Amino acid sequence: MPGQIKYIIGNEACERFSFYGMRNILVPFLISSVLLQYLPEGSEREAMAKEVFHSFVIGVYFFPLLGGWLSDRFFGKYNTVLWFSLIYCAGHACLAMFEGNRTGFFTGLFLIALGSGGIKPLVVSFCGDQFDQTNKDKAKVVFDAFYWIINFGSFFASLFAPLLLRHFGPAVAFGVPGVLMFIATVIFWAGRRQYVNVPPSGADPDSFMAVVRTALGPRGRGDGKGGTAIAWTGIAVAALMLALWALQALGIAVPWPEAFGFVITACLALGVLIAAVGVGASLQLERARGLHPDAAVDGVRAVLRILIVFALVTPFWSLFDQKASTWIIQGNAMVIPHDQWWWPSWLVKDAAQMQALNPLLVMLLIPFNNLVLYPALRAMGFQVTALRRMGWGIAFSGVAWIVAGVLQLWIDGGAEVSLTWQALPYLLLTFGEVLVSATALEFAYSQAPHAMKGVIMAFWYLTSTFGSLWVLLTNAGVRNDGFRALIAQSGMSEPAFLMFFFAAFAFVAAAAFALYARRYPMQDNYRVAT
């Protein structure tokens, strides 16, 4: 076992406590803080807290594109992780010092999103770089420990950070995760003389983007099939979106929704850009053959197919990430059963602590699925393929939100609902997460050729970005008079209506996923044993 692994694992444990500690108290803090006191208490302030939270999540899962690019092209993994970790620490310091200053606090959120996102795609692969042919049998043990320590850190952060906020205030509650991030950085730095540092690869003439540019550009062989026109149309539409937002920000009347701020507009533009370039490249990909190796061209085609799968997974993340926003708000309206002998009142005092169920259940469900559920299903004749697991995972998330919606109707009816009932939707949602998240990485790894695996990881992180985009779009829609009238006609409260809306969103996505999965051409790109 490489001796330097202890530094990487120790870094990850502290960093994950740091990240989830601040993330899981962000919405409760914002609702009660002076930062949002310009809004009336109640639904408007809660909606803004959700908007800030999901904008932050969008940044966290967008910046891996930047971190991965800087590492691969210029600085290498060690330097990139270390420098982004220092940015990460500065962000935590801003949260602790500027709890009452909107500019300072939001600057801190931006720096944490930049730092956390920048190191996200690198730490796991840097860990893998420490192994070679002589000790590769130890790698699986380390990766299992790596995944376990992520959930270990998340569990304790989810359990204790709300208590710090409750008893010691936001400066301490945000400061402790900051101290943990500083310790994580020091631990990582301490192993600097022992690490194996793979140098940056630099520009790759046969990279994903190089092949796409050839397929769409004048260098490609043969005539195009309209793909170039589609790609340029998408680029123009994306640029127009950003221009309309900019004009509106300057106070000029333009036909662009006022509720669409920069984050929503930029994400929509990015989505249009990826879709148009992807469709255009898929139509003309053969134009790159002969100018790039066949393996590179086939790899791009495999990535484009996987992107459709990833796009259909984005609704899952719109449901999953709201456990740290919508479900906390719901939990605050529920009754904590301190009068029951079985409730751990000495420890669980806040609704936000229910989030600790997620990592705890992950650690229990993964071995249960692998050792009990999947073998039992195979024994009954069911083929437990990766795509089927992912489709069912999306559907289970929808069921979780139906249960949450029923609980909300119960609350709206005036009943005193025990917080214990939230354990059921948490169980269903976490079961869906294990089926979707853990399986998707296995699926993408098997489908993408070796040279494209880094690209696939970057696009995988973007699924969470677009998941939070759907939440922001829904929040923006709620401000529309027509949408509000539709909610009023339903006879439900706004929270209950939106819970059933997101459940329906998940079921539609699961159905579309199942239809696409039936005709997806499965590949096997695991490396040949040597």
Short description:
Keywords: Membrane, Transmembrane, Transmembrane helix. By secondary structure, this protein is mainly α.
How would you describe the overall organization of this protein?
This protein is mainly alpha-helical and 530 residues long. It has three domains: 1-196, Up-down Bundle (Growth Hormone, Chain: A); 208-217 and 224-292, no CATH class; 313-529, MFS general substrate transporter like domains (Growth Hormone, Chain: A). 72% of the residues lie in helices and 0% in strands. The chain is built from 19 helices and no strands. The protein has helices spanning 5-23, 26-32, 43-62, 64-97, 102-119, 123-129, 139-168, 170-190, 208-216, 227-249, 262-284, 294-320, 326-332, 357-379, 386-412, 423-447, 453-478, 481-490, 494-518. The chain starts with a helix and ends in a 12-residue tail after the last helix. 45% of the residues are buried. Residues 526-530 have low confidence and may be disordered.
Distance between the termini: 21 Å
- CATH superfamily membership of the largest domain: MFS general substrate transporter like domains
CATH-defined topology of the largest domain: Growth Hormone, Chain: A
In helices, the fraction of residues equals over 70%
User: Which H/E pattern describes the elements?
Assistant: HHHHHHHHHHHHHHHHHHH
Which stretches are low in confidence, meaning pLDDT under 50 for 5 or more residues running?
Answer: 526-530
- Summed up, the helix count is 19
Mean pLDDT: 91
Class by SSE composition: mainly alpha
How many DSSP E strands?
0
Note the overall shape. globular
Backbone CA Rg: 23 Å
Named at the architecture level, the CATH assignment of the largest domain is Up-down Bundle
Family: Belongs to the major facilitator superfamily. Proton-dependent oligopeptide transporter (POT/PTR) (TC 2.A.17) family.
Keywords: Membrane, Transmembrane, Transmembrane helix
Transmembrane segments: 21-40, 52-69, 81-98, 104-124, 145-165, 171-191, 229-247, 259-281, 302-320, 356-377, 389-411, 423-445, 457-476, 496-517
Pfam families: PTR2
